[in-house]
Amino acid sequence: MVDYRPKGYPLFQEAYLVNNLEESIQKWSKVFGAGPFRIAAHHKTDKFEYRGTDTEADVSYAFGYLGDIMIQFIEQHDEKPSIYRDMYQRGQEGFHHVATLVHDFEAEFKRFQDLGYECACRLYADGVDAAYFDTRSLNGCFTEVHGDPPYILQRWAQMRRAHELWRPGDSPFLTL
User: Would you say the pTM of this structure is higher than 0.70?
Assistant: First the structure.
């Protein structure tokens, strides 16, 4: 019998598709005290697959913390098919996915497949494997499985520390 129990990988991120990164950062900083945020404009990958094709949408990301949870904002600049357009048309915005940070990426990838969830998108960028599984029937959103190389853990620890030190009135934008 296959053991499908999670291997102790808690959810660490919630992500939202937005129409404007900067406006979303400003609002979340003001309303919830989230931030500061680091922007990755027009992010490119080394390898990319969306539902069996190499179609890669033009997207920008922003990452920041709200307490212990990482908040990600995604802005899609074009109309190419994507996991974001699977849920939202241009002009719409909302909650998109949760993410789990995993040490054994391939094992967790296989576990999600064995559980019957379709991999909608798989990519490799900046030395990190990531995959988005279509878990909308379970939780109403996608679930991202994200690798945890040491440098990414260090970068996110720096961002988490910046959030701890951030005070109202400070810039909601982070430069590392």
Answer: yes
